[in-house]
From TrEMBL:
<dbReference type="InterPro" id="IPR010926">
    <property type="entry name" value="Myosin_TH1"/>
</dbReference>
<keyword id="KW-0009">Actin-binding</keyword>
<keyword id="KW-0547">Nucleotide-binding</keyword>
<keyword id="KW-0728">SH3 domain</keyword>
<dbReference type="Pfam" id="PF06017">
    <property type="entry name" value="Myosin_TH1"/>
</dbReference>
<dbReference type="GO" id="GO:0051015">
    <property type="term" value="F:actin filament binding"/>
</dbReference>
<dbReference type="GO" id="GO:0005737">
    <property type="term" value="C:cytoplasm"/>
</dbReference>
<feature type="domain" description="Myosin motor">
    <location>
        <begin position="14"/>
        <end position="687"/>
    </location>
</feature>
<dbReference type="InterPro" id="IPR036072">
    <property type="entry name" value="MYSc_Myo1"/>
</dbReference>
<comment type="similarity">
    <text>Belongs to the TRAFAC class myosin-kinesin ATPase superfamily. Myosin family.</text>
</comment>
<dbReference type="GO" id="GO:0007015">
    <property type="term" value="P:actin filament organization"/>
</dbReference>
<keyword id="KW-0597">Phosphoprotein</keyword>
<dbReference type="GO" id="GO:0005886">
    <property type="term" value="C:plasma membrane"/>
</dbReference>
<dbReference type="InterPro" id="IPR027417">
    <property type="entry name" value="P-loop_NTPase"/>
</dbReference>
<dbReference type="GO" id="GO:0000146">
    <property type="term" value="F:microfilament motor activity"/>
</dbReference>
<dbReference type="GO" id="GO:0005902">
    <property type="term" value="C:microvillus"/>
</dbReference>
<feature type="binding site">
    <location>
        <begin position="107"/>
        <end position="114"/>
    </location>
    <ligand>
        <name>ATP</name>
    </ligand>
</feature>
Amino acid sequence: MAKYHWQSQNVKQSGVDDMVLLSKITEDAIVDNLKKRYMDDYIFTYIGPVLISVNPFKQMPYFTDREIEMYQGAAQYENPPHIYALSDNMYRNMMIDAENQCVIISGESGAGKTVAAKYIMGYISKVSGGGSKVQHVKDIILQSNPLLEAFGNAKTVRNNNSSRFGKYFEIQFSRGGEPDGGKISNFLLEKSRVVSQNENERNFHIYYQMIEGANDQQKESLGIMTPDYYCYLNQSGTYKVDGTNDSKDFQETMEAMQVIGIPGDHQTQVLQIVGGILHLGNISFIEAGNYGKVESTDLLAFPAYLLGIDPSRLQDKLTSRKMESKWAGKSESINVTLNQEQATYTRDALAKALYARLFDYLVEAINKAIQKPHEEFSIGVLDIYGFEIFQRNGFEQFCINFVNEKLQQIFIELTLKAEQEEYVQEGIKWTPIEYFNNKIVCDLIENKLNPPGIMSVLDDVCATMHAKGEGADGTLLQKLQAAVGVHEHFNSWNSGFVVHHYAGKVSYDIVGFCERNRDVLFPDLIELMQSSEYTFIRGLFPENLNTDKKSRPTTASSKIKKQANDLVNTLMKCTPHYIRCIKPNETKRPKDWEESRGRHQVEYLGLRENIRVRRAGFAYRRLFNKFLNRYAILTAETWPCWRGPEQQGVLHLLRSVNMDTDQYQMGRSKVFVKNPESLFLLEEMRERKFDTFARIIQKSWRKYIARKKYEQMREEASDILYNSKERRKNSINRNFVGDYLGLEQRPELRQFLAKRERVDFADSVNKFDRRFKSIKRDLILTPKGIYLIGREKVKKGPEKGQIKEVLKRKLEFGSLSGISLSTRQDDFFILHESQYDSLLESNFKTEFLSLLLKRYEEAIKRKLSISFTDRLEFRVKKEGWGGGGSRVVVFQRGQGDVAELKAGGKTLSITVGDGLPKSSSKWNQTTATWQTIGGEPGKNFLPGSLNEEKIMKVYIFYTAYSSPHKQGRPPSTAPPKLGSQRAPRVPAHSQNNQGNLDFLNVPDQGMITPQPQPKGPRCRAIYQYIGQDTDEISFDVNDVFDLIKEDPSGWWTGRVQGKEGLFPGNYVEKI
């Protein structure tokens, strides 16, 4: 029999959600669990707070607004694992703890890191509030994705949309939690891809997007041809990617530039540079007497035109170079003519420099659009190239794998090493768990001295290298062998060297290492681009060539080393969260699990050690003073401040909530809590306290707003029937309650509504069929439509014979064509719908109609037709082979206020006496009085006596930081609700009925009938209690009232101000 997740609706259970709960902690068990969930289309799994994500290679159905609503404000264990749960946790932690957060998304190339980052940013954008300025920032944050992907992503053999650069995106927030700024840091763009690609790979997406998506005018002005015409695109023989629409993506890229605020002329220049690079690549060189010469000078004109430079000057700078010569203390400039190889290298260097600087400009444009003067809170999302092992691995793969090695070090440092060290420092009982610490590999690559690391040796070789060539690479290999040849994680081979990374051994081809590390752009080329007629292009090359450069130029490896260490420092200042992405196959096909590949990733990601540390450790730790500050509100002794040692205060709090002693340990400066559930208990109790305090203020404010609203509703309801229909006594002057079914306590009815779908009206009505037979239906009106709910006996299955609620009909607003009523004082009305009509009877028809008309107009943007006549016709539903047909309802004058029904054939006659005249005056506002919070009648509510600004501030705070679906009763010792001991009751339709809007009661005709004081036992309130159900009473501290009945369940019956109802017995003392 299939298992289902305990709380989420109909979500099948597959394996275990959290691998901390695995019965065996072995790599086999971990792989089997991930595989089982992956094959059942569950791509997310937890290890405590760490999220494991397996790339499904298809679009999954659970990333809709429904899931966003489901995970917002929910605890991690409430719903199945999801990236939205981690995102929500980050956002709430930032708001609660006032600490910056970051998420480190790691995994190899093609494991789904970029998509994960997009979902996180999308979720945060949806759940955070804000006005038009904040919306503008959100738009830029979301639009930065397609723009940076176009210029920074490419198809590789392992991934069709591989990030070829690293990105750390900080979303900055105001203290109210609104995203009001941001900042992107980018790392190591793979520039070499601009000029060469491996087989079955592509250049950056933007080239193919522009070729496919540019309009005719753009194609003509940019000289766009087919991709196989360009040398920079035709080396790999791959131009298309399955599932990618380059033309559509180009329009998105251009739209993103517009949203970000890049001016139109700059957008044109961006495309000119992209086109200019393509044409530049078609300039080829031939050897002429040991010198390089442009093979076809005709090909110089178009790139020169697009870049705004002189063609002859371009030719000159590609084939010669100005060099400084020093002799006898004097220096002079001489022009050196380049050979064919050097000229090709110079052309490629210019193309790479143009593209890299253009990419930096785009990142800077995004940063300028969303920068804010001072930082408050932030959430950082790290989306960086994954670990790569290709057939041929060059300098770029070396740098990429180094950054991944550093990220793995952070993960080890914070989840395995630091956690265990903290337990020892704090004196917590702990058995150490062994793990592989990859710091030894990081040191092998980045050490400066004793012994020098690979990058230091590389920089030394480049400093003494004067010309491009294989000699420098050979020297590098010899020096590496001498420096680190005996290192256990290093080996050399005839064409390069091998590094034993945490993710496996990688063989690096030494060819090109020195050249790519130097990354020098010769002054001649800078000077050439500074001569461009376009200000935009000149701005990309701001160097001052007149200053003497005596320092050694910065190399690519030293740059990436600094960036990686700066990134680590940034991440260490935040509260980190982790997503470990797994690539299940190399075929990029869904539901294809390669066992060896999955096992290898589980092993090198250290998931087994992670589970073991997590299982033995503590989910939550907090400094004593921070813990006290957060939970002080739970007891009178700790609020507003604890007088005594902080440790004792923490112990007092833990004991006051009856937390088991095996669920926590006290360290020297921190308290350690074992399970997340224990923490959620504390949070829920804290929330209940706030709930109690905020409820009074909230109620006062709501009452004031509701008074205005309900005055207006009565006016509108009166207008609907005015001069059209006779009135019953008090039909307008009664309270409008809305929910007459008590839906908050009726999950069997709420199941048919969406989560948090607001209910405008709910009532039990009579519905008449084709034979005019009456049957009860629950009528519910929401902003989404009208629900008619009935009951049926289950005919088969384990619940056979039981009566169950069934959704009989849902009427969309768009399908309604009108409403018909009689002119008499009856309660009948007909809802006319496109398929068939519904004849209904409700005591509260006026309230229902006023709300329905309003909702209909909001949804359809026109008024709903309403007619009044004493001969009504309605269409009935077709049944079997018979036709639907129609029925007639005739209203006649009779005696008394109760309608008499007589059916005959296809006609129903309804007889009822005369009511109040159709022109009866509207509701008299001046005679109505308003109840105070405590329920004392007869006193007018004076909003002017309240500080409305303070009320609103507290109300906003409460609604922003409290989960609306978790409401409890103070104090924590209150008895549980009876549940099965007393079934939910449908309140009677009377003036005392309060529904869930008890604070809206206005006594009929503005008069209060004095209640006689009965003799019998009485009690005094020792706590305030606010009734939360229709059959409960409310009272303030020291209120004295009648005790009618004591019940062993703890829920007693009493009478306050003439109203009888239930209340918790431990809130009072008998007198």
